[in-house]
Amino acid sequence: MSRKIDRRTFFERSAVSSAGLFLGGMVAGCSVKKSEGISDYDVMAEVMRYRKIDAHEHVDLYSGGPEVQIDFADRLGIERLVVSKPVTTQTGTPDEFREANDHILKAMKLYPDRIMGQVTLNPQYLKESMEEIKRCVDQGMVGIKVYYQVKINDPLFYPIIEKSIDLKMLILMHANCQLGMAGYRMKYDTHLNPNTSLPEDFVEAAKRYPEAMLQYAHTGGGGDWEYACKSFRDYPNIYVDTSGSNNEGNMIDFALEYLGEDRLFFGTDTSYYQGVGDVLASELNEVQRKKIFFENYNAVLRKGGRDVA
Ligand SMILES: [Zn+2]
Q1: Is 7 among the domain residues?
Q2: What mean pLDDT, rounded, does the chain reach?
């Protein structure tokens, strides 16, 4: 094969499967030359064809303030970003979570038509957490985002989950599920974060509260996402978001097989190109693309009357 054919073959084969990679170049200002029929796949036209809600987003956490996130969102046609600032310390005191939520409230005021906030809290401080839910929901927050201070199935979480049911709000929980090595599963040794929620913890909470809506965070965040998807097959109130920077090629296709097309949310967790590219690169039909990019999350928002028109 000549080098020219190699190059053409490369483009043809990788235009879709490496959409994330291509997006990186395109958004940065490069473009794929269409000469010699190398590729007529217009990635950005494809990207902009779909309405999008980013189901897992942050501000002031690890990659800049809201203006940075809105800039990415504008370039990728993301209409709404569901944004939180979880407290990533083990302590997670009321002062810490109130301060984190203040960042989100500020971002919501700056971009009221773009940013939808999630309140963060720590169930170890129940009274303060319940007060914080009220304070933030009264100011327009649409959901709850929690971290690894307490497992999702811990009794400390029960009143928080019950409150989310009353409010018809989804709970996005940080999650982990470690890979085994050479056939040895290391019993989910999460090292510094022993209370990180595992797939089994989600299942237990979902069984106890079938009316709750739980979102397993970032299948693209590393770890054994296949095991997670298999674990959730029979629990229709567990959703997963596809965010993260470690997303493997068949991640969404695999998730679709186990969870169906209504429980997957597009998300980025600030890995924008991977998040968008991964949906486009998957074996999805038009209806499924629309559901994952936008409609599934909007359906959850609709339950509480918070959907996007
Ligand atoms: Zn995140």
Answers
A1: no
A2: 87
